[in-house]
Amino acid sequence: MKRSRFLLCLMFLFSSLTTLQAYDVKQDIAQIKLVQKEGQGNLAASKAVKQLSQADASALIPILNSFEGANPLAVNWLRGAFETIAANAIKQNKLPVDQLEKFILDKSKNPRARRLAYETLIKVDPKAEDRLIPGMINDPSVTLRRDAVQRLIDEAKSLEKASKKDQAKKVYQQALSGATDDDQVKAIVKPLRTLGQKIDLQKHFGFLSDWMIVGPFDNSDKKGYDTVYAPEEKIDLTSKFEGKEGKVEWKSVNTEDDYGIFDIAKSISPYKGAVMYCTADFYSPEEQSLEIRLGTPNAWKIWVNGKLLFARNEYHRGMVLDQYSVPVTFKPGKNVILLKLCQNEQTESWAQRYQFQLRIARPSGTGVLSQKPESTTQLSP
Amino acid sequence: MKNESLKLLLPLIAVGLCCGADWPQFRGPLTNNVATSDAPPSKVDQESIAWTADLEGRGASGPIIVGDKVFITSTTGFKQDQLHVMCFDVKTGKRLWERQFWATGRTQCHSKMCVATPTPASDGKRIFATFSSNDVVCLDLDGNLLWIRGLSHDFPNASNSLGMASSPVVVGETLIVPVENDDDSFTTGLDVKTGIARWKIKRPRVANWTSPAILKAAGDGETLVLLQSNDGVDAIYPETGETAWKYEEGAGRIPSTTVGDNVLYVPSKGLTALAPGSSSEPPKVLWSEQKLSPSTASPLFYQKRVYTVNRAGVLTCANPENGDVVWRLRLKGPFSATPIAAANHLYLVSEKGLLQVVQLGEEKGELTGEIDLKETILATPAIADNSLFLRSDKHLWKISSK
């Protein structure tokens, strides 16, 4: 009798401790997720992350689950705790490998959490790579997908080397379906084109290639960046304006460049001390949160449906694909994008570029096309 | 009241500045490239390599040493947006731990630069790792996360399309982090315990890759931090970010000011020697000398001599009283890493990975040894444990006496 009472007490104590730990983990995670900009919540999060880092391996999956809905700062805090717990679990041979693998394979889970789970798993089970990665070709996780694409590129290269051109072509095509990183796209497109395949890279990346453009307006002494010229107030494609060099009006331009680069200096004129406005429409079948991805060596402002999204007053520090990623929520139907592009008056050879490339993409990097069927972009009638 | 408070804090500041034989930040304990109590080998060859540790990803950040641990940063991923902080054992080179984070700011860099260009800093208890994405990670010496900030996440126009390179410094309870660029340009002083800003000051809107230097107080004076920019040098109080005095004659944006015997050597008009100012007196220009113009590497003051390395790889030794050239020695450059000094020798590592040791003399400098590490090295080495610590993208080396 006494013995059973003792066991009962012990079970109660054990169950209470387990509940307490589960509760603490939940509380700590909740506290960390309150971290905001400029260090708000840091003090409480510091205490929470210290406590959470001491939890046992049972906290790993709850931490991964908590990535959902966490802001990018909180995700890093959570990762800090996860790695400490995982390192201890590996040392003690207590890493919950089955649970991690199940988590990785569940595509509904947060992509970064899944990648973290994968990187942790392969520390103790390197063979997991061969088991898991081949199925990730269209995965929502950019990095898992990248690894899957790389395997296909390597396979296609081997087939090509063995003169199995048709098979290589098929594998390259499969690889392209998942490729969003430019180095991989280039590694696929070059051999595919050699093998006779036509590829629309503008479409693949989601570049906007047809624009209406007006200018130049005055940007002497860089004063045009903050000057509100008429196109900023209202977009009327039939209007004429007093520009820097006389009357200007909207004209239609387009680019056939693979990477959607529209070169104002070469295609129109190497204006200096100038502001140009460019507009294009993007049709969305529904409300969706996407990214405008811009590359330009010039200063710029961008509006969508009349709302200023972002502005950057930097000149000639380089231009690359996806140089800037600006989150945007498109409304259903037509959305009007307005880009203000400013060129300065520097005379050095490296300061003459006046150009841009702009695409619409998902946060994962996959290009998104305008949904009006006639072309990738359609201008307002 | 402010002075009284600061006087109380002086012992703490002293602790922050003097970490024994540690190398706790970019350019060493006093940000002047000099090790005072360590003696790395004066003659080096391939057998001087005590150990080599493998690294992943990319990094131009220098190693720092706290106690028996070496800390280093790097980045991986197609977008170089995975930020790594690694810890190695000083004696064996064994990797003790590694932590990773995701960049919350932009990671675009010039091809020669990389996201892990800023060297981390330590107050002896914490490691502060900063990256070009303007993420600031604070860990304890065992790798436990204490706090993290995303300065570009908070201020999205605080970035530079060529990359950010300035290394932070820690003085007392404040971590000074420069975020100086063409748009939202600022420097901030973060509380070392929480990461919350004690202050944030606007800075000239132009890309700047220089790192702050510490002007250690003489006597009972206050220690100042020197912020160099296109405009010149601002001396600020580390506790408040308030300006103590300004030098407004312009300065370079890559090599950084160094301090020796209470004189500043500023990459301005070639090289300018400056006596510090005060809140009532501007700094006094002692001399300027175009022949001493440094290239990427910062100037060095050591044993009553000032040294610079030019674009052609020529090491120049000059008289710090007037800027007159004393001797020159042609080395195999080019150099991105700043020369460091200990035990009457200078240690210079070229971009191609050639470590060259120069013995200093009154009338000349003499090359006493070299090791070709055969990898691109942009990071300034560290000195501790009577050894040198160097890093490339691929490896971390410890160079010791045989």
From TrEMBL, chain A:
Keywords: Signal. It comes from the Bacteria. Residues 1-22 form the signal peptide. This is HEAT repeat protein. It comes from Gimesia alba.
Automatic annotation (TrEMBL), chain B:
Residues 104-253, 285-365 form the Pyrrolo-quinoline quinone repeat domain. Pfam families: PQQ_2. It comes from the Bacteria. This is Outer membrane biogenesis protein BamB.
